[in-house]
């Protein structure tokens, strides 16, 4: 069929192609303006650059052992339910000083390590770089950090064992190192044993001044089973034993007597065991300083302490405060880009108040240098363009005036010696400066932001024109689609609606299928029961997993029925696998009975036993005795998880290859259903493998919805099928537990079938696991279209279908960009709107271009080829 042409003579197909090219172009242009690297002060700080304070006071410590326990939430150490009993005894004894360290969003490892080592506020782009272990663009090798300062002291070597993120951030910094990948979340033990095996030997060595240890097992347990996993308390006790081993060596080994031992988390975790967003659990990390010398401070605190829902135990400090505090305690200048404030609890280490004031003034002067570098020297000159500065940056002008007042007071204090009154004023100025500069807007490239938005608007215009000239429905038929796009766009400008986006899709799907039921009834179809069943299925699906931010921990189907009743879980999961098994047998019905039964049974059994074995490692409390016995009965009982997953993937791949080969050869592979339906069945098995065990029964509900739509296909228009597909893709994403928070990204299935880290493979597996429901509906929607073609619809169905989906994607991209630009100074820009932009990228490039257009186009083409044979 010749493509319909628009009034200006441009084929609608060309407009559709242009729109799908403009979408990724807009995303790329906007991202380069929205996520720039912030300028940094070059070089290393030195004492000589800041004069007028005298010689720096002597440091109480000369060595540092810095132990990071990934995702060490504050309550994991400080409450009665903690496994850190020895650490708590040190707190009571006064040999340990505990804090809650506030980790600003994004709460993922790389940006948090940047904050800890530099004292600065990392770019939100680091949340993306954190997922790519091969990236070296985020290196801190040339920046001023406490690691660089300890190296510059030349009093010993730097050594590191654990998360290889340190090696990526600090290439060439460590003299001895053994890195382990941080993303293989199925490993609870080896990843930590690889760190511990070095400790005993290193504690006896006297050739180092800094030892960094980064343990990953506790974080992996959180990702797999949550903070209440039965593995969690065991891991906490293991970490506490390491603390005891190190502290005992500090007490007994002469060369370690002046060693400062710091134990901290890079971030916390939420109730689901994930992190990346800004909930109280994710931003509250434990921070403990340990040394026999701390007893001199006489701070014998109570431990354990009662549970606190806010996770704020003892004093709360910023993670960036670590940099200036370590500088004072270990005797080196504060790193140049630091925004942290020296923790005042350690000031009593210096009995002379003059030394205390000097440390605070050096810290303040260092932060002042950042203000001057940002706004120019004029901010310190009262008579130079004061009004211009005041109009645009009144807070910073006031900060500069406050510094000058402090400097004047310091000069007078040097004469009269009354230093004690100056300490509170400097501390107050430090915290004010910290708050102002930390919240300073990023250096956005506004020209790129506007160009990106203009490109997105152009994509909207091209997609809208393609829809108009691809679908022959009346204008009123487009009202629901227009309403969805308009309401969604408006919703992007409100942080609460972004956080709770799932409600929009649940209610939109409910309203749409209610309307559709009435429309079908009016067209003469009397099966109102099917509409009721459809709405009931939607209600159950939306109740399966609570998501979002406000009600994420509230009861849902999984928490109420499946977690307490593993038997029910595996009955439903078994029914799902049985349904797949039967569909496979029907899908291969043109083959000999013995062959199709063997293939279907072997493949489904391999997938089922993998899921049982996986859950046994992931959440053993969910595995019934019967399921455990099933593992013992199979001939693969000694196989590991990697081999089991590979068997499933290879089986599904061979199955799809065989089906496609039969379709291309114009031969029947089934007398019962189309080849594309068999492909959907095999895809279902793959998606089940990548889904959590508690989400497996959802595929039965998705199939029920699909069968209802398929039964009414003669009464539906192509536009209605496209809108239905759009709504169900998004609703199912949230029903499976997704949200717009980075912390909801499920990494539990990201390593199925692979033994080492590969960013491309892990990325594909992660996307497949998190968008499983959406991917399923993308292919199911194609089969609905093929059924319409079989009922006499016009040949241009696919173009119209893609045009509708493209129009929504282009509109959503434009709306999210506009919201991020308009609200770039909003309090929640980095905790709500920036993560939403990243999800928008995943939806646009991953789900739309790769799945809907790419995979969907291949499946639709195969279906057309198959029908031409008949």
Automatic annotation (TrEMBL):
What metabolic or biological pathway is this protein involved in? Glycolipid biosynthesis; glycosylphosphatidylinositol-anchor biosynthesis
Keyword RNA-binding appears in the UniProt entry: no
Gene3D superfamilies the record matches: Alkaline Phosphatase, subunit A (3.40.720.10)
Gene Ontology BP terms: GPI anchor biosynthetic process
Instruction: State what protein this is by name.
Output: GPI ethanolamine phosphate transferase 2
Chain ranges passing through the membrane? 12-37, 450-469, 476-498, 504-521, 528-547, 567-586, 593-614, 645-664, 671-688, 762-785, 805-833, 845-865
- Output the lineage of the source organism: Eukaryota, Fungi, Dikarya, Ascomycota, Pezizomycotina
User: Record's Pfam families?
Assistant: Phosphodiest, PIGO_PIGG
Q: How does it sit in the membrane?
A: Multi-pass membrane protein
Coiled-coil stretches are: none
The record's subcellular location field reads: Endoplasmic reticulum membrane
InterPro entries per the UniProt record, alphabetical: Alkaline_phosphatase_core_sf, Phosphodiest/P_Trfase, PIG-G_N, PIGG/GPI7, PIGG/GPI7_C
Which stretches make up the GPI ethanolamine phosphate transferase 2 C-terminal domain?
441-863
The family annotation for this protein states: Belongs to the PIGG/PIGN/PIGO family. PIGG subfamily.
Its domain of life?
Answer: Eukaryota
Query: An example Gene Ontology cellular component term from the record?
Result: endoplasmic reticulum membrane
């Amino acid at each position: 069929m010749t493509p319909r042409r628009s009034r200006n003579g441009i084929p609608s197909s060309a407009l559709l192609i242009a729109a799908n090219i403009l979408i990724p172009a807009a995303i790329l242009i906007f991202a380069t303006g929205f996520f720039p690297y912030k300028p940094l002060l070059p070089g290393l700080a030195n004492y000589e650059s800041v004069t007028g304070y005298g010689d720096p006071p002597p440091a109480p410590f000369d060595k540092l052992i810095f132990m990071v326990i990934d995702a060490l939430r504050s309550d994991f150490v400080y409450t009665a339910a903690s496994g850190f009993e020895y650490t708590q005894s040190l707190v009571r004894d006064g040999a340990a000083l505990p804090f809650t360290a506030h980790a600003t969003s994004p709460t993922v490892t790389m940006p948090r390590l940047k904050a800890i080592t530099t004292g600065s506020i990392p770019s939100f782009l680091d949340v993306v770089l954190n997922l790519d272990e091969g990236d070296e663009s985020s290196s801190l090798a040339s920046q001023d950090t406490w690691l660089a300062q300890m190296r510059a002291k030349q009093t010993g070597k730097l050594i590191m064992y654990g998360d290889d993120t340190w090696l990526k951030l600090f290439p060439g910094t460590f003299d001895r190192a053994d890195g382990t990948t941080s993303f293989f979340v199925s490993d609870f033990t080896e990843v930590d044993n690889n760190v511990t095996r070095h400790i005993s030997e290193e504690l006896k060595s006297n050739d180092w001044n800094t030892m960094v240890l980064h343990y990953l097992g506790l974080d992996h347990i959180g990702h797999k089973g949550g903070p209440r996993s039965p593995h969690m308390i065991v891991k906490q006790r293991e970490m506490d034993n390491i603390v005891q081993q190190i502290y005992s060596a500090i007490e007994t080994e002469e060369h370690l007597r002046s060693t400062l031992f710091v134990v901290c988390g890079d971030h916390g975790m939420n109730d689901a065991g994930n992190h990346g967003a800004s909930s109280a659990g994710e931003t509250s990390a434990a921070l403990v300083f340990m040394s026999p010398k701390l007893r001199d401070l006489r701070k014998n605190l109570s431990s354990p302490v009662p549970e606190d829902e806010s996770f704020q135990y003892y004093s709360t400090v910023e993670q960036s405060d670590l940099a200036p505090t370590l500088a004072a305690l270990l005797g080196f200048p504060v790193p140049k880009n630091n925004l942290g404030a020296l923790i005042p609890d350690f000031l009593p280490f210096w009995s002379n108040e003059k030394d205390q004031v000097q440390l605070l003034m050096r810290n303040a002067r260092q932060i002042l240098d950042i203000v001057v570098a940002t706004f120019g020297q004029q901010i310190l000159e009262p008579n130079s363009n004061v009004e211009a500065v005041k109009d645009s940056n009144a807070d910073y002008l006031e900060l500069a005036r406050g510094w000058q007042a402090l400097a004047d007071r310091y000069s007078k204090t040097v004469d009269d010696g009354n230093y004690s009154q100056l300490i509170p004023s400097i501390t107050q100025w430090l915290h004010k400066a910290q708050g102002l500069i930390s919240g300073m807007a990023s250096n956005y490239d506004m020209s790129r932001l506007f160009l990106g938005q203009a490109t997105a608007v152009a994509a909207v215009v091209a997609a809208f024109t393609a829809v108009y000239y691809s679908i022959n429905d009346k204008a009123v038929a487009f009202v629901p689609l227009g309403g969805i796009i308009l309401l969604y766009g408006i919703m992007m400008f409100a942080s609460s609606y972004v956080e709770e986006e799932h409600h929009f899709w649940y209610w939109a799907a409910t309203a749409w299928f209610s309307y559709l039921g009435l429309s079908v009834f009016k067209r003469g179809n009397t099966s109102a029961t099917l509409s009721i069943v459809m709405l009931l299925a939607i209600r159950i699906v939306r109740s399966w997993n609570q998501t979002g931010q406000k009600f994420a921990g509230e009861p849902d189907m999984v928490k109420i029925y499946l977690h307490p009743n593993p038997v029910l879980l595996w009955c439903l999961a078994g029914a799902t696998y049985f349904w797949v098994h039967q569909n496979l047998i029907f899908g291969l019905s043109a083959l000999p009975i013995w062959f199709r039964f063997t293939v279907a049974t072997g493949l489904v059994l391999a997938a089922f036993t993998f899921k049982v074995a996986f859950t046994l490692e992931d959440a053993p409390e969910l595995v019934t005795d019967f399921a455990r016995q099933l593992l013992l009965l199979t001939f693969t009982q000694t196989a590991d998880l990697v081999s089991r997953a590979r068997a499933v993937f290879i089986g599904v791949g061979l199955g799809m290859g065989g089906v496609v080969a039969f379709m291309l050869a114009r031969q029947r592979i089934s007398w019962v259903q189309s080849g594309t339906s068999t492909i959907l069945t095999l895809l279902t098995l793959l998606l089940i493998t990548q889904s959590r065990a508690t989400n497996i029964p959802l595929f039965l509900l998705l199939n029920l919805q699909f069968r209802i739509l398929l039964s009414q296909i003669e009464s539906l228009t192509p536009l209605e099928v496209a809108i239905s597909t759009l709504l169900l893709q998004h609703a199912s994403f949230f029903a499976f537990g997704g949200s717009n928070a980075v912390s909801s990204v499920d990494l539990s299935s990201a390593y199925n079938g692979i033994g080492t880290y590969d960013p491309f493979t892990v990325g594909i597996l992660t996307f497949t696991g998190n968008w499983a429901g959406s991917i399923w509906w993308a292919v199911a929607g194609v089969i609905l279209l093929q059924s319409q073609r079989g009922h006499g619809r016009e040949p241009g169905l696919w173009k119209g279908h893609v045009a509708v989906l493209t129009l929504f994607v282009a509109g959503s991209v434009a709306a999210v960009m506009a919201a991020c630009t308009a609200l770039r100074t909003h309090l929640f820009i980095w905790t709500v709107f920036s993560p939403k932009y990243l999800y928008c990228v995943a939806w646009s490039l991953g789900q739309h271009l790769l799945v809907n257009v790419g995979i969907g186009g291949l499946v639709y083409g195969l279906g057309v080829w198959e029908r031409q044979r008949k």
